[in-house]
What does this fold into?
Amino acid sequence: MLGFKHRQSGGVNPWTYVGASTAFITAASGNFTATLPAGTQAGDLLVASIVTRDAQAVNAPAGWTRIAQSTTGNGISDATTSIASGHMSFIVRGAGAPSVAFTRSGGGHLICRIVAYRGGLSATPSDASTSLTATEISSSRPGSLIVMAAALARPTSASAFNAAGLGTAASGTGGQTAPPSVSEFLERFESSAPVGGGFENGCALAVADAVIKRPRATGTLQATAGSSARHVLIAGIFAPFD
It folds into this structure.
């Protein structure tokens, strides 16, 4: 487990949701520069989630730690057997804003958004899957934050984020701004790249989070896509330190 010492403020849920960046959406290949959420400060946990419709790996800037990446042999005009590629990485903000200049050697259209949380941190990467199901991951401390990103191979929606072993209800629609919950996944946003205009068959990105009350395995991680394709679900756990 990757760890950074941080004093927990007490209670089962030390996390505050700061916000999400505006969506960076491009049909161009190569390197790109994302944006940070407004109002971040030193000590904030920043989690970057990315969906692409190509097989090029995305490299995070210096200082960021990759949680998981799934790259697949798909193309941007693959209409009938679309496969999304997904990436998640994180950083703890220092006194100054971190670099958000990501690199890749080529690739097609892409969506990137960064979410910010205030609270403790460490990370355990999940497995990634080419469906909207991921294998379980485990938390080692009460009050751990779990963040799930659905990398969708269509300009569609995602809903019903859930972890089978946590007893959490599925989330509602995107745009929720309340603090992470111990009783349900809150969906923070949905962003999509349209069909055509360089985006060919499009893609979409959705992120949801919840807090795990006590150390345990999550059970199978799941979400539901609005249309059928070969999507990817990536998750990471961020555990507060005493």
In short: The first strand starts at residue 2 and ends at 4. Confidence is low (pLDDT under 50) at residues 1-10, 123-130. The two ends are 15 Å apart (CA to CA). The CA atoms of residues 42 and 95 lie 5 Å apart.
